[in-house]
Amino acid sequence: MAIYNLGSINADMTYRVPHLLAPGETLATSSLTRGLGGKGANMSVAAARAGAQVRHLGAVGEDGRWAIERLTEYGVDTRQIAVLPEATGHAIIMLDAAAENCILIYPGANRALSVERIEAGLAEAAPEDIFVFQNETNAQREAAELASARGLRVAYAAAPFDADAVTLVLPLLDLLVLNEVEAAQLERATGQGIDTIPVRDVVVTLGARGCRWINTDAGESRAFAALPVTPVDTTGAGDTFTGYLLAGLDRGLPMPTSIEMAQRAAAIMVTRQGTADVIPDLKDVTEHRF
Ligand code: ADP
Ligand code: NA
């Protein structure tokens, strides 16, 4: 059993500033932290920390070898990550004293993947494996088709939301994970209620209100309350949730058990500053007292 993740890898560069930049303004900051980020990388790390065997399909530039090394240290199989001539994807994050932010994303290598390379990366994939992707790489439809043809369970985290991107892959999905805002956007784009989206399992995350699982086979919807925590930084909570959810399903755990584990992991994540580097491991998650 393995999880194949076609996903973005970003350098998250966070600059603390006294105020967010105004047009024409130049501002010096002495505070820079560089961390591993990107929805794809976050999900791979979360699933690996949850004990799953994770194969990351993606790309960085020459300036991103450190990101591959870090993913490897975190237990992710990085052999299918390409090093391309493009720049490594990055996010320039300005964070002011009131925790307001502005984020500029440059996708770079994340949007320069070749379908051939993805196909080679899936060569050993088997029907009991899971394929997951998000909307920060190119070749999403092609990759989902390849995975689906090999019989893998296909999961999609519809973020950052784009109506065209999700519509293109919707018929191929077995599992769709999205937050409340994205769910509303999908309803508007399809003119269909989220309960009737033709995907077998849909999980809508609701931040501090937990999440809702819709199983269209059974025509059932079930609510799960969030764990009580004091939020410090909600960045990466959704990615941690999805990584843990998939790791649970990959281990053969039922959906409710996998969701409960995912919620525990995500709740711990909102109490921590940072993204991939601070995702809790399975021991933290099972032993933590809320
Ligand atoms: P995203 O980060 O993708 O917008 P959400 O904000 O919905 O996703 O959060 C994903 C999951 O993280 C939630 O379903 C919940 O389990 C957990 N979570 C998020 N915010 C909180 C919070 N304030 N308290 C407890 N759990 C939270
Ligand atoms: Na966090």
From TrEMBL:
Regulation: Activated by a monovalent cation that binds near, but not in, the active site. The most likely occupant of the site in vivo is potassium. Ion binding induces a conformational change that may alter substrate affinity.
Keyword Nucleotide-binding attached: yes
Pfam families: PfkB (PF00294)
Subunit structure: Homodimer.
Keywords in alphabetical order: ATP-binding, Carbohydrate metabolism, Cytoplasm, Kinase, Magnesium, Metal-binding, Nucleotide-binding, Potassium, Transferase
InterPro entries with a match to the protein in the record: PfkB_dom (IPR011611), Ribo/fructo_kinase (IPR002139), Ribokinase (IPR011877), Ribokinase-like (IPR029056)
Pathway in which this enzyme or protein is active: Carbohydrate metabolism; D-ribose degradation; D-ribose 5-phosphate from beta-D-ribopyranose: step 2/2
Active site (record annotation): D239 (proton acceptor)
Localization in the cell: Cytoplasm
UniProt-listed PANTHER family: RIBOKINASE, SUGAR KINASE
The protein's name: Ribokinase
